[in-house]
């Protein structure tokens, strides 16, 4: 009985008293002397000499007046003899605001914030506010929010956050003269923050290594040598500066990922001259040189996109192979990490594949492919074809066809959640006659799969990104045929 350690022995002061408050009963410890309850873990966990990895602590503490002290803990776990803190539960003032959230950095780690507007309780993890409790939202309708005019047509947008700086967007612009723009979320809209010289940029990817923030651009302009560039965030200048260049060939995409605390980058090399059957390259971060080095090459056919995902202890990479020089009806490949390298796991038939989107619903794992067009030397090239959602089967240990969805030269899928609802939005880019098409939002309906719920007018839609701010949830799409990208606001109830 742990409580008996804190209670006075019979006949000793201070006395204790059983009290009841609003239906809850408890012991009132009288007197001004604080009693510390301390014990080795081995005395209470009789089947284990150590404190367990998983445990529950249930306590109700009611203190009418208490001055807050920075390092005063209600419960703590410390190392034996050294008393070095391993785990602690301490109380702190709850910040309440109707506007922007308080700062969240390492200094505020563990602080709680109650957002009355969103009716949620959040905790700072040292980088961002994470949800503890919040009313479940439901999507009501989608409205136009911002017209974002970029310097030229935009193939890709990447939304990311920088601690203590805010929300940013990197636009991959076609025009090499004007370069690509980095935008910052200010006054509830994206505004130009920095311009970076790029060569027909096709994609950006944001990643971090040891708290250092990077952006890598896929430059696709045919020149010798073709160079894609990694930029790093300089906290002093508050700008992205050139960090490392890597030789690429018609690069269309980068994917960043980590395996066992090692950082990797993989590039989708689309073609070299007129040859689409070339190698794409996986780079590994060298902790000594602080640079990326070639780790592995994989044979690809007109590679358009890479997607990394994890299922349990297994790590996967899937490539969207678009064209082999003769036809778009080719296989795209799922690779699995085994023995320190990626090996073929499964080949999936695709038709001009341009994007893979991996997502999880409950304990089910899915892959959605965007099929763009059917090209062969035997007839016309239809653009209105099925894109497919695959599910990982626990019986066959392979991805099997789950649902076909009619799309129009689809070039991107984006999975996002609103409350408990799950959604997919597709980038329909062309139907053979027009770039002015509706891109469709699909909602997960359980056994029915994904059903269409909203149609959004788009023009040459190339990429979708979902992001959230204190103002709510948003979708942004980029246009590969226009300078106009659009931000939509997801209205909820």
UniProtKB/TrEMBL annotation:
<feature type="region of interest" description="Disordered">
    <location>
        <begin position="1"/>
        <end position="21"/>
    </location>
</feature>
<keyword id="KW-0732">Signal</keyword>
<keyword id="KW-0677">Repeat</keyword>
<dbReference type="GO" id="GO:0007165">
    <property type="term" value="P:signal transduction"/>
</dbReference>
<protein>
    <submittedName>
        <fullName>Thrombospondin type laminin G domain and EAR repeats</fullName>
    </submittedName>
</protein>
<dbReference type="Pfam" id="PF03736">
    <property type="entry name" value="EPTP"/>
</dbReference>
<dbReference type="InterPro" id="IPR009039">
    <property type="entry name" value="EAR"/>
</dbReference>
<dbReference type="InterPro" id="IPR005492">
    <property type="entry name" value="EPTP"/>
</dbReference>
């Amino acid at each position: 009985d742990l409580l008996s350690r804190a209670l006075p022995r019979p006949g000793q002061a201070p006395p204790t008293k059983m009290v009841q408050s609003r239906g809850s009963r408890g012991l009132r410890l009288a007197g001004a002397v604080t009693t510390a309850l301390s014990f080795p873990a081995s005395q209470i966990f009789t089947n284990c000499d150590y404190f367990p990895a998983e445990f529950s602590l249930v306590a109700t503490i009611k203190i009418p007046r208490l001055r807050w002290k920075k390092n005063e803990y209600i419960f703590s776990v410390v190392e034996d003899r050294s008393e070095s803190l391993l785990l602690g539960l301490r109380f702190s003032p709850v910040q309440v605001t109707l506007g922007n959230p308080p700062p969240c950095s390492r200094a505020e780690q563990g602080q709680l914030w109650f957002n009355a507007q969103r009716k949620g309780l959040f905790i700072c993890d040292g980088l961002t506010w994470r949800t503890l409790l919040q009313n479940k939202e439901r999507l009501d309708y989608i409205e136009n929010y911002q017209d974002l005019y970029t310097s030229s047509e935009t193939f890709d947008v990447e939304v990311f956050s920088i601690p203590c700086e805010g929300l940013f967007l990197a636009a991959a612009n076609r025009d090499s003269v004007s370069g690509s723009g980095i935008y910052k979320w200010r006054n509830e809209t994206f505004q130009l923050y920095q311009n970076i010289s790029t060569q027909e940029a096709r994609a950006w990817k944001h990643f971090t290594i040891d708290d250092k923030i990077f952006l890598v651009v896929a430059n696709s302009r045919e020149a010798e040598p073709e160079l894609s560039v990694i930029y790093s965030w300089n906290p002093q200048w508050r700008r992205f500066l050139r960090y490392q260049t890597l030789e690429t060939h018609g690069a269309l995409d980068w994917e960043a990922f980590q395996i066992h605390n090692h950082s990797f980058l993989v590039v989708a090399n689309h073609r070299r001259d007129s040859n689409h059957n070339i190698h794409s390259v996986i780079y590994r971060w060298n902790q000594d040189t602080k640079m990326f080095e070639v780790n592995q090459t994989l044979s690809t056919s007109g590679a358009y996109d890479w997607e990394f995902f994890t299922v349990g202890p297994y790590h996967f990479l899937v490539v969207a192979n678009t064209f082999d020089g003769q036809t778009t009806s080719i296989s795209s490949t799922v690779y699995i990490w085994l023995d320190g390298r990626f090996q073929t796991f499964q080949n999936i038939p695709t038709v001009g594949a341009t994007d893979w989107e991996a997502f999880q619903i409950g304990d089910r794992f899915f892959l959605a492919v965007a099929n763009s067009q059917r090209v062969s030397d035997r007839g016309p090239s239809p653009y209105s074809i099925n894109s497919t959602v695959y599910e990982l089967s626990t019986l066959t240990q392979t991805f099997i066809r789950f649902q076909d969805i009619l799309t129009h030269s689809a070039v991107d899928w984006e999975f996002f959640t609103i409350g408990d609802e799950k959604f997919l939005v597709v980038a329909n880019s062309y139907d053979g006659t027009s770039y002015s098409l509706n891109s469709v939002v699909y909602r997960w309906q359980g056994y029915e799969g994904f059903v269409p719920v909203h149609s959004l007018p788009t023009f040459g839609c190339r990429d979708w990104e979902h992001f959230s701010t204190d103002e709510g949830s948003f979708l942004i799409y980029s246009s590969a045929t226009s300078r106009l990208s659009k931000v939509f606001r997801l209205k909820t109830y």
